[in-house]
Amino acid sequence: MGALALFILGSAAIIRNVAPEPDAEASTVFSRAVVWAWSLNPPAWLDEQRAARATNVAIRSWSINCGFVSIDANEKLLSSSPIYDRLRSPADALFYERSGLAREADNNFSVLEWATIASILIGLATTVFAGLRSDDEALGSWKRTVSILAIVFPALGTAVAACAAFYGPREQLLRVSQSLVALQQLHTEMQNGLTHTPCPTTEEERHSILQRLDGWEDKLIRERRENTAARLAAIAKATDTTTTSTGLSH
What is the end-to-end Cα distance of the chain in Å, rounded? Predict the structure, then answer.
C-alpha cells in the first residue's frame, strides 16, 4: 500500500514538473491528469497572493472609512488624500514582493522535487544495470548496451548532484521562506497599526500616521537589503560548493 502511495505521489510530482499549471494547459487528453496532479499540491503562491490582497483590502477599507479615499460603485478610485497616496506605495510593494517571493519558493521547491526524483530514478537504474552487467548469459546481444548504460547512469547521477549543488534549491527555499515571513510580519504590522487606530481628526494625529508610515517604509527598505545580501551570499556559496565538489579550484 505504501509503495502504491509513493508511486502515485511520484507520478503526480513528475506531471507537475513537466506540465504547466492547469490554467495554462490547453484542453488535451492529458488535461485531467494535469489538473489531478496540481490538485494534490496547489501552488502556494496563489494562497500567499490572496492573503496579501486581503491585507491590502483591510487597509483600503480603513482608508475609506476615514475619508482618505473615495471610490465609485465599480471600486475605481475617484479621489485620494496625501496620507492614502503615502500608504499605498509600501502596501502595494509588500503585495507584489510577497507574491514574488512565494512564487520563487514554489519554483525552488519544484527544482528540489525534480532533482530528488531524478536522483532516485538514476540511482535505481544504476543499481539495476550494474547488476545485469555481470550476467552474460541472460543479456545475450544486449551485453554491450547494458555495459554502456552501467557507465552512463553513474555519470548522470554525478551531473544531477552537481546541478543540485550549484542551484542549492534547499538553501534557496530556506532563504526565500525567511524573507517571506519577514514581509508577512511587516504587512500585518502595517495593517494592525492602521486598522486599530481611530481615524485621525487633527493635524497632529495625521502627522503621527505619516511618521508611522516612514517607519514601515524604512523597515521595508531594510528587508530588501537583507534579502539582496542573502541572495548574493547564497549564490556565492553555491558557486564555491560546486567548484569544490568538482575539483576545479585545485
Answer: 49
Q: Which residue, 210, 177, 227, 195, is CA-closest to 54?
A: 195
- Among residues 25, 42, 59, the one where a domain terminates is 42
pLDDT at position 121: 86
Helical segments of the chain, H only: 2-18, 31-40, 44-65, 82-132, 136-139, 143-167, 169-195, 203-246
| Residues 92 and 11 both lie in one domain | no
Give residue 56's identity as a one-letter amino acid code.
N
The whole-angstrom separation of Cα 232 and Cα 225 is 11
**How many domains does one find in the chain?**
2
Of 54-58, 214-218, 243-247, the range with the lowest mean pLDDT is 243-247
Range of the domain at 19: 1-42
Q: What's the CA gap between 226 and 60, in Å, rounded?
A: 28
Dig out the grid coordinates for 211 from the structure. Answer: 511618521
* Dist CA 62 CA 195 (whole Å): 6
Residues 9 and 85 occupy one common structural domain: no
* Residue given cell 519577514 in the structure block: 182
Q: Which residue has the higher pLDDT, 163 or 241?
A: 163
pTM given for the model: 0.69
Residues 17 and 83 in one domain: no
Distance CA(66)–CA(82), nearest Å, equals 13
